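anyone seen this seq b4? input:
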Amino acid sequence: MKSIIASLIVILVLASCGKYEKPFITFKSPEKRLINKTWKLIKKVHSTGFEESPNESIAFNIDSDSTALINGTISASWSWMWTIEKDKFDKERIKVIDPIYNRTYKIKVLTSKELQLYDLASLIEYYYESN
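predicted toks r here
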């Protein structure tokens, strides 16, 4: 009986592990951690190592469409990337389409307070925190 309970605990822990570097264990879906908050950009790190701290923000929402508001004024759409498997999303990659750019990011960290994105085209890492 003890081994069954121990096995169930191990399965529960492994099943709840996230795909990202952090958090290791979470009970909130990626959508719940991502949407309905404003993410403030803390720093932007270029592939050369150059760091900058622009005054930028992004807010992800899901209404009738999946929309993002960049710096409070620029409207964009966003979606999870599709996997090779039919009708499945890859919730480690996100696509953001605004009037100027069409960007694909790899999500490295996604917690309720921290978001780290890696731009697959420009090789820039973005570090955000939520309010």
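The beta strands are 38-45, 51-52, 57-62, 66-70, 74-82, 89-97, 102-110, 114-119, 125-130. The chain has two helices and nine strands. kinda curious what u guys think
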